[in-house]
Amino acid sequence: MKREQPLLYNGLSEIVGKKFVTDEKFALYANIRDGGIEKSRIPGIIVRPQNTEHVSMILQLANRTKNHITIRGGASQAGGGATPVYPDGILLDMTDMNKVVKIDEDTMTATVQGGATFGRLIDELHKRGLTCCLGPHAIYTATFGGCVASNSICIGSGRYGQYGEQVVSLEVVLPTGEIIRTGSDATVNGGIFFRYCNGADLTGIFIGSAGIFGVITEVTVWVEPEFEAKDFGTYCFSSLEDGTKALLEKVRIGLYDAYQNYGKHTMDTLRVRGGYHDEIPEDTMFMNRLCVVGDENQVKHKMEEIDRIVKKYGGVTISPELAKAPTYDIMGDAFSKLRAYGVAAPIVFMIPIYKIPKFVRICEDYMKANEQYCNPVKEAPNLRSWSSAGILSRNGTVNFAGRMTISEEPLKMFEKGWKAWHGLVELVCSHGGCPYWTGKTWTSALVRNYRPQYYWFLKKMKQTLDPNNVLNPGLLVEDIDPILKRD
Amino acid sequence: MWRHITGTYGICPVREEFRHEHYCGRGRTAIARAIIENKLAYDKSLADVVYTDLCCWSCSEACSLLEGYKIRVPLITRAMREDLVKLGIGPPESLEKIGLNVKKTYNRFGWQKGERKAWAENMEIPNEAETLFFVGCHASYMYPEIAKSTANILKQGKIDFTILSDERCCGVTQIWDGQVQIAKDLANHNVHAIRESGAKRVVTACAECYHTIKFDYPELIEEKLDFEVLHISELLSDLVNKGKIKFKEYRKKITYHDPCQLGRGSNVYEPPRNILKSIPGIELLEMKRHHGSSWCCGSGAGQVVRLASPQLSMKIATDRLLEAKETKVEALVTTCPFCLNLFASARNISGIDIEIYDLTTIVMQAIEICS
Lengths: 487, 371
Description:
CATH architecture of the largest domain in chain A: 2-Layer Sandwich
Helix content of chain A: 25-40%
CATH topology of the largest domain in chain B: Rossmann fold
CATH topology of the largest domain in chain A: Uridine Diphospho-n-acetylenolpyruvylglucosamine Reductase, domain 3
Order of helices and strands of chain B: HHHHHHHHEHHEHHEHEHEHEHHEHEH
Distance between the termini of chain A: 17 Å
Distance between the termini of chain B: 46 Å
Largest interface: A-B, 41 and 32 residues
Shape of chain A: globular
Number of helices of chain A: 15
Number of strands of chain A: 21
Largest sheet of chain A: 8 strands, antiparallel
Structural class of chain B: alpha/beta
CATH architecture of the largest domain in chain B: 3-Layer(aba) Sandwich
Helix content of chain B: 40-55%
Number of domains of chain A: 2
Oligomer: heterodimer
Shape of chain B: globular
Structural class of chain A: alpha+beta
CATH class of the largest domain in chain A: Alpha Beta
Strand content of chain B: 5-15%
Largest sheet of chain B: 4 strands, parallel
Number of domains of chain B: 3
CATH class of the largest domain in chain B: Alpha Beta
Number of strands of chain B: 8
Strand content of chain A: 15-25%
């Protein structure tokens, strides 16, 4: 086989072994997508490091040869974070670094390699009666490194916040190949037991960084004893305002998880495509599915309080079964069926809870003005495929998610729909929504909306840590020239 | 929901083994798209990858994205294999040989046509009945005890049945390896023969024959079937529920392995379990991965992977047997001769201490014979 980049292939093979390097064309094409819809450039070569030292040597090689690197874990995020922005670079597939390194019940921490999936750790912890508290919705494929780099919102975020808040310490390989450890392990004799010590919280700069500051090779997280009890509830409200106020009060009690669906259009779509004809009352504008955890008395008390709040705001209680699975199992399944009508183009932003009604209306008005780009739902032609939902995070915040299902054919229609999607993103940003996803699809929106001083600071950090712009170029920061040179 | 609990155990057995993205459903779909968009061409290296797909439906079962876009990865693989055969790049030699066997002798082993019904000697099976037992190649030639057990079960349940005088291989391997014309010819023959027999109902003890006749034949012959197709477990479960089959005590700790083409492929999970649970003395324990999250035996649909990549197949089968051993059972029961055959080989090579049975044979050991 004629190699496109023989020197690079040989260099990588010397580091990891030929078995873990491929530049077969079909292998490259297999890696051009993540959970989203945006096509990426084709990588030039794929390498699967087996340990942290491999990662360090690969980054050093990339800096010498001036090849850029895209980091790929489970690639379950829908923002374009795990796919190359520029062609012909190195794709660093982290999924072989998937071990559970240590579970320490003295410090109540668990350490895993960056490519480990949640299921692997959950299973080990479950044997000991422990839980890692949070788990991403893409639980089969999402990796710890990716979750940290995305600062994912998870099952359990209502209680624990986003994934970054569970992190105790990281092992990171910097873009130039140095290996650092953060938190209490930053000192020679410290060891891993705590995050906020030894000076500046540099763990934080890697969280949500989309991999532009380093490759996360190990993650240490807090663990807790498994919850004694949990209970679920599903509640419907006939006004966005009532539902929002009720949610704000419920949050003060302490929820583990909460998922919301908003707006008449969303409810109609759930009934028609999700099959929930009888469950969701006709006048529902806000549906809240939640979970509470604790000991038996705590759970009982919380559910009683929630019932009181729901009644206060005129809500009705419907089947808790709808709340018993994370969004992806039931509601995600209902929304995934919208994909039958076109390409699903999601938006996800963080907003304070009290702004839910405002954002729902802004988006629905925009969608109505642009509905010609979305296919109708076959079973109900008056419905265009748009839906909005949210997942609770901590401190009165939710992620606000919407999904347009853009017509795929003809191509001109798709392009106009995609443009309309970008318009929606700008609109939400202009009203104060803060993008949650950090991949390629979102970079230009972020860059346009950053404060100038913040963007200057971000660029400065990137240029300092990654002078050759080798690692994940084109994410979070624009207008730094990417390395495109090849051997 | 169990997938959230067992998420540690992965979705794709081949990806778990080889680790590269192009071995899993997502990667295979991306490759297929690149081919359709004329960005990628078929070649021998790609063909080798295409023939490692187990077509076990695990990715389609697990992923709501695939469900939403109505992407059935096994069917994409099938289409790619058909392309490879048309281009002369596939199938691998081992599968070509099976195709030749089937064309010449109407069975996958290349054995004597006339020996297909040898198991039925002295069984006094009538020439006509409303129920037709489609025996399949494995039960006819390699596991006559399955054929005899199934026949005896039908007799015990007072079901009048017949068999085809000129049954041919169902063609499952050729459907899945891309040699679709051979499969079409077999389908046309078998359907014609079934219609000529006058049977209203076809029952089989092979999960692959079952899936093939029920779901693939209508597409192959481009007609709806005018007879019902049942797996023996469905029929037997019904007989047990109605009290027409009774069991004596039979003590054994067992686990049940869901064959992919019966479980995920046809949504038949409970009938085999109902039968086993009805046998007094049987303790049925589930493996970690069961029902929709069951792990493929490694044979692959139509036994394609076993023939194209025997080492891969054996590794997956051995892992599954180890999983069965973790449940501390004495025996593993399944209802697919491809699974049975591979598990038996894997057990013999690995030395894992576990008994392996087909559902029909264990039922016959437990059945209370009524004259």
